[in-house]
Amino acid sequence: MYTAIYPGSFDPVTKGHLDIIDRASKVTDNLIVAVLNNGAKNSLFSVEERVKMLEEETAHLNNVTVKSFAGLLVDFAAECNANMIIRGLRAITDFEYELQMAQTNRILNHKVDTFFLTAGLEYAYLSSSTVKEVAKFGGDLSAFVTPKVAEQVKKKINS
Ligand code: PNS
Q: Which residue, judged by its Cα, is nearest atom 12 of ligand 1?
């Protein structure tokens, strides 16, 4: 039984994240999308809002659940009986950070391994920060996020 965790900030969830979730759900039995509850980080959306958006966007995937976590990812993985961490890799610039994180996590808990999926080519440039930057200046978000998420980002930015 492969239970995997796909962790992230998801502030907000992008089409790139959804592509990874979709593909990861096909190669795992259970996929837990884990939203980082980091009080110190300056997030646009609250953790509850991010979880809700992800639940709506993944409702069609039967083996996907969305949870939030605080503290160490490997501790949350152990709590969920998950033996895989899934991360998306966009470009070489992601690699150093991802390698460091994967190795740190493996030292903290050798039973948990990290598996990388390469980002879809059409999303290789995409990040939540890009979405927020474009939204700030009133740009079209349709290539980056779903219509529902776009609406919520615009509402939040303009509030
Ligand atoms: O979407 P992000 O911001 O790139 O996700 C980063 C995340 C949430 C995967 C990472 O910050 C994380 O796992 N934080 C929890 C704290 C932790 O376990 N740190 C040790 C690994 S270096």
A: 73
Please state, rounded to an integer, the average pLDDT across all residues of the chain.
95
What is the value of pTM for the model shown?
0.96
How many C-beta atoms surround the C-beta of residue 159 within 10 A?
5
Three-state helix/strand/coil letters over 85-129: EEEEECCHHHHHHHHHHHHHHHHHCCCCEEEEEECCHHHCCCCHH
CATH code of the region 3-124: 3.40.50.620
3-class SS of residue 3:
strand
Ligand 1 pocket, residue 129 CB under 6 Å: no
How do residues 38-53 score in pLDDT, each as one tens digit? 875 689 999 999 999 9
By alpha-carbon position, which residue is closest to atom 17 of ligand 1?
72
